[in-house]
Automatic annotation (TrEMBL):
A single Gene Ontology CC term: cytosol
Keyword NADP: yes
Span of domain Glycerol-3-phosphate dehydrogenase NAD-dependent C-terminal: 201-341
EC number(s) stated in the UniProt entry for this protein: 1.1.1.94
Species, as recorded: Streptomyces reniochalinae
Name of the encoding gene: gpsA
Ranges where the Glycerol-3-phosphate dehydrogenase NAD-dependent N-terminal domain occurs: 24-181
Binding site for sn-glycerol 3-phosphate: K127, G157, K212, D265, S275, R276, N277
Region (Disordered): 1-24
Name of the protein in its database record: Glycerol-3-phosphate dehydrogenase [NAD(P)+]
Length: 354
């Protein structure tokens, strides 16, 4: 047993001996990340109830300990059970973890809000920005659930669900305006393979997660067009520059973008064939139409919709985001990747700065 495992086992034993109950987490969403993160929480010692809308998925999880559609090879720990009943999932939950597609959060949470356990910390795993309102997920949570920012946390970072499900080592950030709540989330999901840090920069952490999906679409498009590593590195670096520019205009801290929620997640997503956003972009770059690409995409690629709300945010804050604008042009305005690339490269020359 490694030192940290031994420490954690000792903490759990001491908690049991002190008569403390294991923490309870409700995870809403039995997709790729909701399922993998439920396993992380259980591995960290939480009792976990997963809410899923599809009875056959819930049934499979409870009877086979597997989620065949998303993680056929991962056996879920005994501490995870599933239900289709939101009230049952939410009951007594110290942590209420939200992992549905960003654009569905508002409607879902409206139907769950009466069931939330008083005092629960709501944790968003989502990496999108709401269309129309341009609100970040934590803002939607505060508004719909009617809870203060001090009880809304965000968990983000370079966390491709399949790698986490295989218990490969990774780090993350648990961010909340209230440092103590961030530490509680950190402790609830800290395992020998999953190492969360804390932050109070919720704005920066959420923007890092949402905008990297847009940049991953751009990098995927470049890959699909057959472009090489110089092009990719340029998109990643200038993508981080425009993310940071937006973040600073919105009150985020610069160092967040150099950390796990910024650079870390950007690099993982832009370089991995496991990334749905990267793959979506690659298909577009290879010449598939938007409709063809949507048809072959079985999971949520948040950047496809959120590129529009990120651009909306950029305009509201008077920030230039040329890569995001290019992605919106290709994905939503029918611009050919070749024309869009030419336009991106022919922008006026300027000094390098964030
Ligand atoms: N998969 C990853 O590697 C990963 C890692 C970190 C963060 N995230 C983020 O987590 C969030 C969830 O992603 P995911 O990978 O689990 O997506 P997914 O597509 O794998 O799963 C989405 C889940 O939501 C359900 N769903 C779809 N529409 C719904 C609706 N209208 N109401 C209720 N449920 C609905 C689906 O049935 C599925 O269970 C996204 O914001 C994503 O950016 C994903
Ligand atoms: O598969 P993607 O593109 O949604 O990316 C997954 C995670 O956000 C990586 O951290």
């Amino acid at each position: 047993m490694r030192a940290s495992e031994a420490d954690q086992e000792r903490d759990r034993r001491e908690a049991r001996e002190a008569g403390e109950h294991p923490r309870k987490a409700a995870v809403f969403g039995t997709g790729s990340w909701g399922t993998a993160f439920a396993a992380v929480l259980a591995d960290a010692g939480c009792r976990v109830t997963l809410w899923g809308r599809r009875p056959e998925v819930v049934e499979a999880i409870n009877t086979t300990r597997r989620n065949p559609g998303y993680h056929p090879d991962m056996e879920l720990p005994a501490g995870v059970r599933a239900t289709t009943q939101a009230a049952e999932a939410a009951r007594d939950a110290d942590f209420t973890v939200l992992s549905v597609p960003s654009q569905t959060l508002r409607a879902n949470l409206e139907s769950w809000r009466e069931m939330l356990h008083p005092g629960t910390v709501l944790v968003s795993l989502m990496k999108g920005v709401e269309l129309g309102t341009a609100k970040r997920m934590s803002e939607v949570v505060e508004e719909v659930a009617g809870v203060p920012a001090e009880r809304v946390a965000v968990l983000t970072g370079p966390n491709l669900a399949w790698e986490i499900a295989a218990r490969q080592p990774a780090a993350a950030v648990a961010a909340c305006a209230d440092e103590e709540a961030a530490r509680a989330v950190q402790s609830a999901c800290h395992t020998p393979y999953f190492r969360p840090y804390t932050s109070t920069d919720v704005v920066g952490c959420e923007l890092g997660g949402a905008v990297k999906n847009v940049i991953a679409l751009a990098v995927g498009i470049a890959d699909g067009m057959g472009l090489g590593d110089n092009s990719k590195a340029s998109l990643i670096t200038r993508g981080l520059a425009e993310t940071t520019r937006l973040g600073l205009a919105m009150g985020a801290e610069a160092h967040t973008f150099a950390g796990l929620a910024g650079m870390g997640d950007l690099v993982a997503t832009c370089s991995s064939p496991l990334s749905r956003n990267h793959t979506f972009g690659t298909n577009l770059g290879r010449g598939m139409t938007l409709q063809e690409t949507i048809a072959v995409t079985k999971q949520t690629a948040e950047g496809v919709k959120s590129c529009q709300s990120v651009l909306d945010l950029a305009r509201r804050h008077g920030v230039e985001m040329p890569i995001t604008q290019t992605v919106v042009g290709i994905v939503h305005e029918g611009k050919s990747p070749h024309v869009a690339l030419k336009e991106l490269m022919s922008r006026s020359a300027k000094p390098e700065r964030a």
